Amino acid sequence: xxxxxxxxxxxxxxxxRIANKLFNIKESKEDDELCNKCQAKKE
Length: 43
Fold this sequence. Notes:
The chain is an all-alpha fold. It has one domain (1-43). The chain has 2 helices and no strands. The protein has helices at residues 14-23, 36-42. The N and C termini lie far apart (26 Å).
């Protein structure tokens, strides 16, 4: 299962769909190993 390398949130599968709906967490467009929240913190 693919996960964010900083916060370990799932970026695919069933748990990803739940995180996406509840917390608006998605795969980052700039770095496919990070979620959008960690990418925003990184910048």
